[in-house]
Specification:
single chain, 0% strand, mainly alpha
Length: 114
């Protein structure tokens, strides 16, 4: 996964702030994809979830589990779009239409970036 032995690099987050991650690898990949779909920086993902920064960087760069990760990112983006469309149901008329259109445009733009 990485070319650096784990003994010679500093942990991220720094000692004292790090948390032990007890999640399965599949759950870690799904959560990193969810955060990545929402445009959260890899260092922030590692800090918030307690996942090793090397794993987060490898996933985002497509060096590790590329197919699974990209599938999870697409699913997260669809969930985000669907949630935005559902939230537009509270609005009426032109405002609701604009929210739905913006959600679809954001989704289409994020899909083309993959």
């Amino acid at each position: 996964m990485t070319s650096h032995p784990s003994g010679d690099r500093a942990p991220n987050p720094p000692l004292g702030y790090s948390r032990e991650c007890h999640l399965t690898e599949a759950k870690q990949i799904r959560l990193v994809a969810e955060f990545h779909a929402n445009r959260i920086r890899p260092s922030r993902i590692a800090y918030r979830l307690g996942i090793d920064i090397a794993l987060v960087d490898a996933l985002v760069a497509g060096e590790y589990q590329a197919t699974l990760f990209s599938d999870q990112v697409v699913l997260a983006q669809r969930r985000r779009r669907d949630q935005r469309v559902r939230s537009s149901e509270r609005l009426r008329g032109q405002a609701a239409y604009e929210v739905r259109q913006q959600a679809q445009r954001d989704f289409d733009a994020s899909i083309t970036q993959l």
